[in-house]
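Researcher: Re-running this chain for the archive, since the previous output was lost when a drive failed. Same request as before.
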Amino acid sequence: MAAMIEFVCIATHAGHGDPSITVERKAWAYCAAGGIDAHEWARIDPTGVETLRSRAANGRVQLVPDNVDEHSLTGRPAR
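Model: Regenerated structure tokens:
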């Protein structure tokens, strides 16, 4: 099963590298610009990494408000 990404970086990074995946608040996070630091994480509905990497998904990821109940998004206990 593919990694389900729950955060995406919305920061504008000066330099661009290969996209990267890391952990943010005990969940997978994706930075399309491959930034090393200065990330600005936005919560999204859990989304497969392949979807985020595809050109068709560009700009179509659903952002989730920070105050949403995490249990309702993932079907597992809140962290």
